[in-house]
Amino acid sequence: MDSLNNGNFSAFIGLDWANSKHDICVQAAGSDHREFSQFLHTPASIDQWAHAMHARFGGLIAVALELSKGPIVYALQKYDFFIIFPINPTTLAKYREAFQPSHAKDDPTDAEHALELLLRHPDKFKPLRPQSAAMRTLLCLVEQRRRLVGDMVRYTNRLCDALKQYFPQALDWFPKRDSVLFCDFLTRWPALTRVKLARKSTLVEFFNEHNVRGTSRIEGRIAAIKAAVPLTNDAAIIVAYQSLALALVDQLRATIKAIDGFDKQIAAIAPTLPDYSLFSELPGAGAVLAPRLLVAFGEQRERFRSANELQRYAGIAPVTERSGQKSWVHWRWQCPKFLRQTMVEWAAQTI
């Protein structure tokens, strides 16, 4: 099913979602009468409402809503009698503003607008067709892993800022800050005064335990530690920022561990999917970007009739605006941000 065919459905529903409840507008096939109601966003309420709709209308039911993923979408996908038609939120907003220039907004009205868009422009909306469970699992894993990487960068930046206030030497000794070595060092010696009291043998043992190899490298770090001079002796600064640094170290260590767990799950699933070898051999792809490129293209590649369509969908195709003597080129603002991020980050690795 590539688009809406009214003859295939027994009823049509427009749904406006919210965190606590959902407003709906229902219209039976062959009727112009519309009904408005709502149900709570709880598993029990959703299940009760879904079965009530099926018992009343039977057959397939078309549901229009401004989401392609999220809790309510995942809940409705459990039922094979619901066919979901995602509507771009911007499209719905512009449609609403066309008839309400005052920008008045109401949830039941938005549900009706979603229903009207689906019924009046059936050729513009395609049903949501879930990919295989393995592909959807990989998609969720790589997306959440990238969010954790963003968290790791934020924690690292905050930790570096805290160390600059009282212990900047640690940043010189450890160029790679998003590592277990850096976290363990700060947990054991969170201030310069503490690490300067450590014996040489203790430091050597610590570095060896963390797979730091090279006698000259270890000796150089130890010499730098012994020769270091405190930035400040103000106890107020040291105590406050040391506590902050230790708190951030705990968060950073947990995030690093979580990313490692995601990497193992991704490595177990990605090679089992078709064409993974094709993406893994692309220049600069590697173990991180190859799975992301695989899910970017997905299994339903027939939806893209050309490379240009994929470029536009991903938001990397340029957009030209012309008015009079002016011309402005920019990239697309409305696009799947994670997909565009994947393309941009992969392009950077190929340089």
Explain what you see:
There is one protein chain. By secondary structure, the protein is α/β, with parallel strands linked by helices. The protein folds into 3 domains: about 5-130, Nucleotidyltransferase, domain 5; about 135-265, Helix Hairpins (Orthogonal Bundle), CATH 1.10.287; about 270-350, no CATH class. It has helices spanning about 45-55, 70-75, 90-100, 105-120, 135-165, 170-175, 180-190, 190-195, 200-210, 215-225, 235-270, 275-280, 285-295, 305-315, 335-350, and strands spanning about 10-15, 20-30, 35-40, 60-65, 80-85, 320-325, 325-330. The strands form 2 sheets. A 5-stranded mixed beta sheet has the order 3-2-1-4-5. A two-stranded antiparallel sheet has the order 6-7. A hairpin with a 2-residue loop joins strand 6 (about 320-325) and strand 7 (about 325-330). The longest helix has about 35 residues, at about 235-270.
Characteristics:
351 residues; Nucleotidyltransferase, domain 5; 5-stranded mixed beta sheet; alpha/beta; 3 domains; Helix Hairpins; two-stranded antiparallel ribbon
Write down the domain tally.
Answer: 3
Q: In which range does the helix fraction lie?
A: 55-70%
Query: Rg from C-alpha positions?
Result: 28 Å
Number of strands: 7
Low-confidence stretches: none
Tell me the series of helices and strands, N- to C-terminal: EEEHEHEHHHHHHHHHHHHEEH
